[in-house]
Design goal:
Blueprint lengths: L43 H4 L31 H5 L1 H9 L15 H17 L5 H24 L12 H20 L1 H8 L12 H8 L1 H14 L3 E5 L8 H6 L3 E3 H6 L10 H5 L9 E4 L16
Antiparallel strand pairs: 1-2, 1-3
Bound molecules: zinc ion (ZN) (2 copies).
Length: 308
């Protein structure tokens, strides 16, 4: 190998090759990093970009470089980019890292969020974009990433889509987005990067800690969403026709709603306003129950079910 490096000093924190490879273990902060091909550490030659690892390398366990999933580029005059400001800004932001391009779909997940922030930081650091571009990228990235983070967290409670979130959850998510976008717009992160930029002789690695505060917020949002959703799961109205078969219970059978929804609408098995309960004059004849479920929420309002 034709290079020497003071261990831990001149080793770049970000690899021109590995940073953009699907196999990189992003939970590992060592340099060189680790990956599926090299779980004990990536060879320096690859890490510093002297070998792009597109061909088999001794000891790579049969795994080679795979670029982070690329968006479908039709090559049609950049119409997509024109109509999609996020993509346009991001493509501008990352142009110095070669062929990398990002799409909204790719931004899903903390992995993507980290890469996107890194890309923006790197480009501001090396002067490829200016402060306004940088803030613009963050401002557009944050809502996409946080929405994804919220859904990642709510998934633990069986929530399968944004439309299943309660008003409280939407408000909480929006509050997190507004706060983070506010931090981005106040510009102190951008100023910090500019004050520690390449032209001033700072290494990109010196910005990693500050940048990690941003992408780590993703986990915060996941956890908040998980807690809120866990206390408010989905339940399906389950009836048992062999016990009773009133029209109220029949209409409600199979409906899936968050528990907060059922409560808010004062609707539950054995409710005195159910037709069976109403006509029984106080006897508990309704044999229905709530069953916890991961099925999608029923769309629209509940049917008219009250006999009273
Ligand atoms: Zn009934
Ligand atoms: Zn019933």
């Amino acid at each position: 190998m034709g290079f020497t490096i003071d261990v831990g000093h001149d080793v770049p924190v970000y690899s021109l090759i590995c940073t953009w490879c699907e196999w990189l273990d992003i939970s590992n902060n060592q340099r060189p990093g680790k990956c599926a091909a090299f779980p004990d550490g990536i060879p320096m030659e690859i890490w510093i970009g002297e070998n792009d690892h597109t061909k088999p390398y001794l000891g790579d366990n049969g795994i080679q470089f795979e670029r982070v999933e690329m968006p479908v580029e039709t090559g049609e005059k950049g119409n997509d980019k024109e109509s999609n400001p996020v993509e346009k800004i991001l493509l501008t932001a990352v142009k110095s890292v070669g062929a990398l391009s990002l799409s909204i779909k790719q931004l899903a997940g903390q992995h993507k969020y980290q890469r996107s922030i890194l890309g923006a930081v790197q480009n501001l650091w090396n002067g490829n974009i200016d402060k306004a571009d940088f803030i613009g990228v963050l401002t557009q990235l944050i809502p996409i990433a946080f929405e994804q983070a919220w859904l990642d967290g709510a998934k633990a409670a069986g929530i399968v889509g944004i439309e299943e979130l309660t008003k409280e959850e939407r408000d909480a998510l929006q509050a997190r987005i507004d706060a983070e976008v506010g931090f981005a717009k106040n510009g102190s992160f951008a100023d910090y990067i500019i004050a520690h930029n390449k032209a001033a002789g700072f290494k990109l690695g010196s910005l990693r800690h500050r940048a990690s505060l941003w992408w780590n917020r993703y986990t915060d949002v996941v956890n908040e969403a998980r807690m809120m959703a866990g206390g408010n799961k989905k339940y399906r109205w389950q009836w048992f026709p062999e016990k009773e078969h009133c029209f109220s219970c029949q209409k409600l059978n199979g409906k899936v709603k968050r528990m907060s929804y059922w409560k808010e609408h004062d609707c539950r098995p054995q409710h005195p306003d159910l037709e069976c309960m109403h006509s029984a004059g106080g006897a508990t004849v309704c044999g229905c129950e709530f069953v916890e479920t991961d099925e999608p929420c029923s769309r629209g309002p509940l049917p008219r079910w009250r006999a009273a």
